[in-house]
Amino acid sequence: MNVSDTNDKAPTLVYKITLAVCFILLLTLFYSNHFHNPFEFDDEHTIVNNASIRNLKNIPSFFTDATTTSSLPKNQAYRPGLTTLNAIDYAIGGKEVPDPFYYHISIFLSLLVLGVCLFRFSSILLKPYTNSEQNFLWSLFLSLLFCIHTANSQTINYIIARADSFSTLMVLLAFLMYIGFPQAKKYFLYLIPIVIGFSVKEPAIMFVPLLMVYQLLFESVPANGKHPLHYSTILNALKRNIIPLLLIAFLYFFSQHLTPKTWDSGNADRGAYLISQPFAIVHYFNNFFLPFNLVIDTDWELLDSISDDRFIVGAAFILLLIFIIFKTAKKHPVAAFGLSWFLLALAPTSSIIPLSEVLNDHRPFFAYIGLCLSSVYGLIWVYKNYNATQPLKSLYLTLLPLILILHGIGTYRQNEIWHSSESVWKEATIKAPKNGRAWMNYGISLMARAAYPEAQAALEKAKQLWPYYPYLYINTGILNSAINKNAEAETDFLKAKALDNQNPEVYVYYSRFLMKMKRYPEAIRILNSGLQLSPAHTELNRLKAEAELMANAPEDIYQLKLKEAAEKVKLQPNHETYLELSLAYYTAGQFEECIKACETALTYKTDYALAYNNICSAYNQLKQWDKAIEAGQKGLQIDPQNELLKGNLNIALNNKGK
Asked: Is residue 575 within 8 Å of 605, Cβ to Cβ?
């Protein structure tokens, strides 16, 4: 379908700038409530506990040592570009502990750039079917649809999933270099973004198969009326792309060579994983059009046999897509290219490489560009072929903005779900009730605010579902320690260690427990064992320094901290120094003095929520529940989102209830 328009009026520069500004404002509006969303899931071991990213001087080592990727040996894949991005954002934040705000800013800016690249790429593909003004509007609609698509919000909110969004950006950049710069095409310079993208996440190498499909559909002129996807034209495309194919083969084997032997995909059953993926692809396709089943962690299980209805449905669906690709390749190459993009982009995670989860809703980010292309082309085709009907024009003027608004609202809502660990994991227990990890993480979030009975119920549910999950026993140990069931807590930690003695997190929390019990020599021994597994684990290193200090001077250290805090108060008496003094009193077990110091802090700053938090916590230690409740409630009136206050207030309320 090649359409010309005699009234081809190019949009003015002011018009373009106005719409571009609207694009940025809309995208910013729909993501405005996500910038402070916390680290979740794999963010902990790749960012929060990863000491390697805390010094930019380590960047060269990222490219030779894959153990810098994560603090967990089983998760140390070779992704030096991703680790570099994390290190840069940590440095920009300038804080001792990584701040998710700076990571979200960086990811959002990358999304804006991706939107610009997608706009340009789609305008090239849609040019033969639209006039100048229509091309601008349709391309803008397509790029905005992709950027604010509700399903893609999973990728943008999940910080470590920046690997998906950034590698996708590199694929688009490579296409623009290939199409727009003859010198880049001649000397294969368009492969540079692919090398960068691969260093962030491996699926970037699917650019080469996508490029071959692009060449077959848009550049090749098959002889004797042959089909664009005839085997002879495919063979010619393979010969034409021998250098790109050799490059991606080299990248793959090079990364495999540098991946530590400790890395574990988490799933050894290659066959079961393979037959489970066709229906996973159906799920991804459905989520593009009806994104109602999004969840941080699914409860899908591997299929047992190809006789399973889900495999049959999935396989039939893929065959149908392939059939449509072949049928549309000649007359509707954009539609065929989009569907090919969808299938090829999913191939690395939905084929023969078994991953720990059957599916993840952040995986199809790269693939959804293909569905955006096919869907928008379909809308253009309908509009062009039935443009004489005024009702259709009116329908489009209503429908297209409505689609964007609904996706924007959906994205805004997803951002709210990701606003706290409790909300995102509570959602997971509802949408994936058979997932033991979801129940466990929900229990952890409840523990964070001292809702111990509810946390215990959630962890028990997790135990019923996943009775041999090591992390589960780590967290039941933490809970039992918090409620002073110390014998049970130690049993849990030892159980976790027996199930997986190669997991550094076992050593972190077991050593914390031992330090709480003032068993410092044992804690140091456990910490040393953990550091042998993960030398760059920030929390293991911090705990070791603290344990060694406490082992050498367990009594004097409290007095030293008190003296230092008192000196600061003398030099500069204000609300902050008195709060620091109150903490020193608290750690020394002098709870009445802690309360007095906080009361003095409140004379300097009457709306000081942290002072009320310390008062509440100190009264909890004194078992004066009414006074603790009063202080906690006053603090929450000032700062309703303060998780520390919520936790301490809940302790008081729970104990008063008893």
From this structure: yes
Q: For residue 643, what are its two tokens?
A: 């998780």
- Of the ranges 16-20, 105-109, 225-229, which one carries the lowest mean pLDDT score? 225-229
* Cα–Cα distance measured from residue 231 to residue 244, given in angstroms and rounded to the nearest whole number: 20
Q: Are 115 and 173 in contact (CB under 8 A)?
A: no
User: What amino acid is encoded at 394 in this protein?
Assistant: S
Q: Does residue 477 contact residue 510 with C-beta atoms inside 8 Å?
A: yes
Tokens of 423: 């909300």
Q: What angle do CA 562, 564, 569 make, to 5 degrees?
A: 95
DSSP for 20-60?
A: HHHHHHHHHHHTTT-TTPPP-TTHIIIIITBGGGG-GGGHH
Q: pTM of the entire structure?
A: 0.84
Domain with CATH 1.25.40.10 in the chain: 423-552, 557-657
The string of pLDDT tens digits covering residues 395-444 is 888 999 999 999 999 999 999 999 999 999 999 999 999 999 999 999 99
Q: Is the dihedral of CA 505, 510, 516, 521 positive or negative?
A: negative
Provide the residue type at 13 as one letter.
L
SS3 624: coil
Strand, helix or coil for residue 153: helix
Burial of 453 (0-12, 13-18, 19+ CB in 10 A): exposed
**Cα distance between residue 107 and residue 95, in whole Å:** 19
* Whether the Cβ atoms of residue 343 and residue 12 lie closer than 8 Å to each other: no
639-658 residue pLDDT tens: 887 777 888 888 888 887 65
Q: Is the dihedral of CA 213, 177, 170, 152 positive or negative?
A: negative
Which of the following CATH numbers is that of domain 557-657: 3.40.30.10, 1.10.287.990, 1.25.40.10, 3.30.300.30? Answer: 1.25.40.10
Convert the pLDDT of each residue in 485-504 to its tens digit.
899 999 999 999 999 999 99
SS3 for 175?
Answer: helix
d(CA 88, CA 52): 12
The answer to whether the CB of 426 falls within 8 A of the CB of 461 is no
d(CA 367, CA 165) in angstroms, rounded, equals 11
Distance CA 448, CA 642 (A): 11
Q: Computed from CA positions of residues 473, 474, 478, 479, in that sequence, does the dihedral angle turn out positive or negative?
A: negative
Distances (CA, A) of 114 to 71, 172, 373, 421, 653: 30, 8, 15, 28, 49
Distance CA(584)–CA(593), nearest Å, equals: 10
CA distance 37 to 107: 13
CB 19 within 8 A of CB 115: no
Q: What is the 3-state secondary structure (H, E, C) of 563-585?
A: HHHHHHHHHCCCHHHHHHHHHHH
CATH number of the structural domain 423-552: 1.25.40.10
Q: How far from chain centre, in Å, is Cα 633?
A: 34
Q: Is the dihedral of CA 650, 655, 657, 658 positive or negative?
A: positive
Distances (CA, A) of 25 to 19, 31, 97, 412: 10, 10, 31, 14
CA dihedral 346, 349, 351, 357 (to 10 degrees): -130
**Which amino acid is present at 73?**
P
How far, in Å, CA of 85 to CA of 93, rounded? 12
3-state SS class at 613: helix
Rounded to an integer, what distance in angstroms lies between the CA atom of residue 518 and that of residue 511? 10
Task: Tell me how far apart the 2 most distant CA atoms of the chain are, in Å.
Answer: 93
- DSSP for 447-476 reads HHTT-HHHHHHHHHHHHHH-TT-HHHHHHH
Whats the size of the chain, residue-wise? 658
CA 318 – CA 279 distance, rounded (Å): 9
